[in-house]
Amino acid sequence: MSEGQSAEPRDSQVIPFPSTTTPQVAFQRDELRILFNLYGRRVAEGEWRDYALDFRRDKAVFSIYRRTSEMPLYRVEKDPKLARRQGAYAVIAASGLVMKRGHDLARVLGVLEGPLKAV
To answer: Which domain of life is it from (predicted)?
Structure first.
């Protein structure tokens, strides 16, 4: 090896990965607890069978399905951009109708609670 040559070949240089990742919106632990409590009750009643979580840059979505192969019955969306206006949480039906929107997730999910049944 001569003086001007390095011990490592040029092809093995490490190129750093760009750290310009944009943050994703996600549900917090207490929000997930509220969502899964409702989901578990409705699964026990036999009405819902599957769910999906989707975390995007602008919003987080909890989709609820009657069957896995269908379109979601409902979507629960968390959109922080709307937090100061109409509320960050919304329940949206399969048709696209916003059923309820607000600042408190538990109150917004009240629209999905079924009527009480006598046992």
So the answer is: Bacteria
Query: At 32, which helix (H) or strand (E)?
Result: helix 29-44
If we measure between CA atoms, which residue out of 40, 100, 103 comes closest to residue 74? Answer: 100
pLDDT digits (tens, 9 = 90+) for 7-60: 555 555 666 655 556 678 889 999 999 999 999 999 998 889 999 999 989 999
**Closest by alpha carbon to 88, among 114, 60, 56?**
60
Going by C-alpha positions, the residue among 31, 29, 35 that lies closest to residue 51 is 35
Give the pair of three-digit tokens for residue 95. 């048709």
Query: How many Cβ atoms are within 10 Å of 42's Cβ, its own excluded?
Result: 18
At residue 11, the pLDDT reads 57
Tokens of 24: 């994703």
Cβ(63)–Cβ(48) below 8 Å: no
Structural contact between residues 78 and 27, judged by C-beta atoms closer than 8 angstroms: yes
